[in-house]
Design goal:
The protein is α/β, with parallel strands linked by helices and 372 residues long. It has two domains: 196 residues, Rossmann fold (3-Layer(aba) Sandwich), CATH 3.40.50.300; 125 residues, Zinc Finger, Delta Prime, domain 3. It has 16 helices and seven strands. The strands form two sheets. The chain has a five-stranded parallel beta sheet with strand order 4-5-6-3-7, sandwiched between helices. Strands 1-2 form a two-stranded antiparallel ribbon. α1 runs parallel beside α2, α4 packs parallel to α5 and α15 packs antiparallel against α16. The chain is elongated. The site of zinc ion (ZN) has 10 residues, from α3.
Length: 372
């Protein structure tokens, strides 16, 4: 199972979108782009109508910061908002039919720019920002607005953020920037304060489950499995769908057996488990570990309440409760910190298996009470 893929988005931008299906609390690139930019996800309908009404009164802000959990469709909403501005059919924008909509969907609209970290870098660099700023400073080539989306905006490096700030302080006419971020606190306060902030809520559980039931990849699952996926995705429906697409439930259950086996000293080697998980990709392995240790801590704190709503691995709750009992809470917290810290290697050239191996050796120590 590839942990990251590059997907060509022909309908919307003709660029390659980096799809990171299991990234924990970082990914704001579109996880799943509906074929139609004229529609938004059901849970975005209110905010979408407010945006349309606002555009019709010409009160369009120069910069909008869309924030919210990863996997709820922020980038897609930004694309639809951009399409609304660029469409030439003001009455039905975005119509999906006019030349502007067609150019946008073909990825050739001269007044639209999409910025994301380039190549293997995890940063949006200053040269990327400068290129777009130069283009935004020109007169619009096709219609009225010039639009840029930055996603994830918190991946701006310091120099790029400073360059962007100048543009935000002195915006050129009819330029609209959309900044998309699951971690807006990482943006400089000076940038945040110059944006209209649009905080998107994670959809209600019932709405997310209803949507998952209509998607091809998750409709074939039974209701209990869809609930599990949503738990694993911390309530974010697009992440849940990505998990369904990648067969995430089965791989995760197999990985958990190895995880529990390591704790119980069943002759399993952390080195061989790490090599196996490394093939799935570091962000997938960290996603699993983070979710399990999160639940182990929760179960220790709640005295083993396997019905706790915040549990992410509800299907494994019984097994996790059995694992949690003798473990030291501080050791678990320390280990969780190391798992979080290992995220810095996700986009690096460091071997995934090596990082996972270190964390599993930690787990062998943390779980030592099981073998006494
Ligand atoms: Zn149109």
């Amino acid at each position: 199972m590839p942990h990251r893929t590059w997907r060509r988005c022909r309908r919307h931008c003709a660029r390659y979108w980096r799809i990171s299906v299991m990234r924990e609390e970082t990914d704001t690139a579109p996880l799943d782009l509906p074929a139609d930019l004229t529609a938004v996800y059901p849970w975005q309908e209110d905010i979408w109508q407010q945006w349309q009404a606002r555009c019709n009164t010409d009160a369009v802000p120069h910069a909008v910061l869309l924030s919210g959990d990863a996997g709820i469709g922020k980038a897609h909403l930004a694309l639809s908002m951009a399409a609304h501005l660029l469409c030439s059919d003001r009455e039905h924008a975005p119509c999906g039919q006019c030349p502007e909509c067609r150019f946008l969907q073909a990825g050739t609209h001269a007044d639209f720019h999409y910025l994301q970290p380039g190549g293997d870098s995890k940063w949006i660099r200053i040269d990327q920002i400068r290129e777009v700023i130069d283009a935004l400073n020109l007169t619009a080539q096709r219609g009225r607005y010039k639009v840029a989306i930055l996603a994830p905006a918190d991946s701006l490096n310091t120099a790029a953020a400073n360059a962007l700030l100048k543009t935000l302080e002195e915006p050129s006419a009819d330029t609209v920037l959309f900044l998309v971020s699951a971690r807006p606190a990482r943006l400089p306060a000076t940038i945040r304060s110059r944006c209209q902030q649009l905080a998107l809520a994670t959809p209600q559980r019932a709405a997310a489950l209803a949507w998952l039931a209509t998607q091809a990849e998750s409709a074939t699952l039974d209701a209990r499995e869809r609930e599990q996926l949503l738990d694993l995705a911390a309530g974010a429906p697009l992440r849940a769908l990505a998990l369904a697409r990648e067969g995430g439930l089965a791989a995760r259950v197999a990985a958990f057996e190895a995880f529990a086996g390591l704790a119980r000293g069943k002759g399993i080697s952390p080195v061989s488990v790490a090599a196996e998980w490394g093939k799935e990709g570091l962000d997938t392995a960290l996603f699993w570990l983070y979710g399990w240790v999160h639940d182990l801590i929760l179960l220790r704190q709640l005295g083993g309440d396997i019905a706790a709503p915040a549990l992410r691995n509800r299907d494994l709750a019984g097994a996790l409760q059995g694992l949690a009992n003798p473990l030291d809470l501080k050791a678990l917290h320390d280990w969780l910190g190391r798992i979080r810290g290992a995220r810095r290697f996700v986009s690096s050239s460091v071997n995934a298996g090596t990082v996972v191996e270190d964390l599993l050796l930690d787990w062998v120590k943390v779980s030592a009470p099981h073998r006494r």
